[in-house]
Amino acid sequence: MRIRSARRSDLPLLQDIERAAGEPFRDLGMAFVADDDPPPLVLLESYRLAGRCWVASDPLSATGDRPLGYVLADPVDDALHIEQVSVDPTAARRGIGRELIAHLAALAAVRGMAALTLTTFTDVPWNAPYYARIGFRALAEGELTDGLRAIRAEEAQHGLDRWPRVCMRRELTSAARPSGAAGTVRIPRVPNASASPDTSEAVAVSGGT
């Protein structure tokens, strides 16, 4: 598996992944989530230009370098926040989501950030229970930072609080390092959080978060 920075030509494919990754929510009675529009191209492009959009591909597969999953991230307080991580269901159970998150952890650790954070559905099997298995812990209300509170408020406005949601955090150590795969050694400049694009319409709901 190769983790690399997204290319402009990847962006429509990321929208396709997002639509497909949302479909399993329909079986849980969460059609609102399944029907949610994917992040618009202009938003994906803003993440790409900021160096905060990565894709996972398998160059040795029949699909070549076509993205099988992707992740978007924002600097939030002392952490790198996983805004969205989604994997094509046809590539599920291959550890792609885990590798994307490990890539983020390495980048954040090299930059001296303290943790990864995310928000997710509490009761969806591939959401909070999955993240707990890979080292995230649920945060109590009193542990939320100002940035996380703002994200949760945006999600509530978007209608996601009709199902239980939680903020989660995974502490990092400076020992983490990028894997060395193509596109992973260069550490992109992380813009100031105040300069981050508006993500109120791209809340992390599919394929994991």
Number of strands: 7
Strand order of the largest sheet: 1-2-3-4-5-7-6
Helix content: 25-40%
End-to-end distance, in Å?
21 Å
Looking at the structure, what is the overall shape? globular
For the largest beta-sheet, the strand count, sense and barrel status come to: 7 strands, mixed
Summing up helix and strand content along with how strands pair, one would put the structural category as: alpha+beta
pLDDT averaged residue by residue:
86
Q: How large, in whole angstroms, is the Cα Rg?
A: 16 Å
Q: What is the tally of helical segments?
A: 6
What's the SSE pattern? EHHHEEEHEHEHE
Strand content of the residues, in percent? Answer: 15-25%
Low-confidence spans: 177-208
Summarize the structure.
With 209 residues, the chain is of the alpha+beta class.
What does this structure look like?
With 209 residues, the protein is α+β, with helices and mostly antiparallel strands. It contains six helices and seven strands, in the order E-H-H-H-E-E-E-H-E-H-E-H-E. A seven-stranded mixed sheet has the order 1-2-3-4-5-7-6. Helix 4 links the parallel strand 4 (79-87) and strand 5 (115-121). The longest helix has 15 residues, at 96-110. The chain starts with a strand and ends in a 38-residue tail after the last strand. The model is unreliable at 177-208 (pLDDT under 50).
Could you give the topology of this structure?
Blueprint: E1 2-5, H1 11-22, H2 31-34, H3 41-49, E2 53-57, E3 67-76, E4 79-87, H4 96-110, E5 115-121, H5 128-133, E6 137-138, H6 146-157, E7 165-171
Parallel strand pairs: 4-5
Antiparallel strand pairs: 1-2, 2-3, 3-4, 5-7, 6-7
